[in-house]
Amino acid sequence: MLTREYKSRLAKEFHEKFGKAEAAFITECSGIKVNDMTGLRKNLRGAGVEFRVLKNTIARLAVKGTLYEGLADHFEGPTAVAIGYEDPVAVAKALSAYVKEQPNFKIKVGALKSKILTVAEVKALSELPTRTELLAKLLGTMKNVPAGMVCVLSAIPKKFLYALNAIKDKKAA
User: Fold this and answer.
1) Which residues of the chain have pLDDT under 70?
2) Measured between alpha carbons, how far is 53 from 56 in angstroms, rounded to an integer?
3) I need a surface site. Which of 93, 109, 111, 120 has the fewest CB within 10 A?
4) pLDDT number for residue 46
């Protein structure tokens, strides 16, 4: 049995975590083996996410006074919380992928700061490109613009040189 002191310390710890979070997702994970959950935790940890099964009363205390206070009504039944500190899209992608693998795993609700997301909105969020993918596209675009400019600017002297060579060949003949 958990002591009152431990519960209050845990609630305070998660209150601080919710304060730093970019996104939070509440999931239902009853009927899933511990080994399977370990795989999910490992995937989520790589995306900068903390995944933890919490007692509902502790979770309600933890979100009180944070931007995620709207999640308090959704802490019912066996729940686990995924708290993302970096990229919300990566969290949504990892959770949505796990839903496809495990039929017992369900996403109840998500939140981006004070905006509560339905399951359909979480699914839509998971279909967006991640921050890393967007940065790669931006970098590719930024690289292509100067490269195109160099090609255009180098074409002018080349054509001028070709014209001079043609005049030289015509005079030599």
Assistant:
1) 1
2) 9
3) 120
4) 81
| pTM score, whole prediction | 0.75
In contact, 107 and 122? CB cutoff 8 Å: yes
Backbone angles phi, psi at 113, to 5 degrees: 55, -120
- SS3 annotation, the chain: CCCHHHHHHHHHHHHHHHHHCCEEEEEECCCCCHHHHHHHHHHHHHCCEEEEECCHHHHHHHHCCCCCHHHHHHCCCCEEEEEECCCHHHHHHHHHHHHHHCCCCEEEEEEECCEEECHHHHHHHHCCCCHHHHHHHHHHHHHHHHHHHHHHHHHHHHHHHHHHHHHHHHHHC
Closest to 130 measured CA to CA, from 172, 84, 161:
84
By the 10 Å C-beta count (0-12 exposed, 13-18 middle, 19+ buried), 151 is classed as: exposed
Tell me, what's the pLDDT at 87? 86
Q: Give the fold, CATH level 3, of 4-128.
A: Alpha-Beta Plaits (3.30.70)
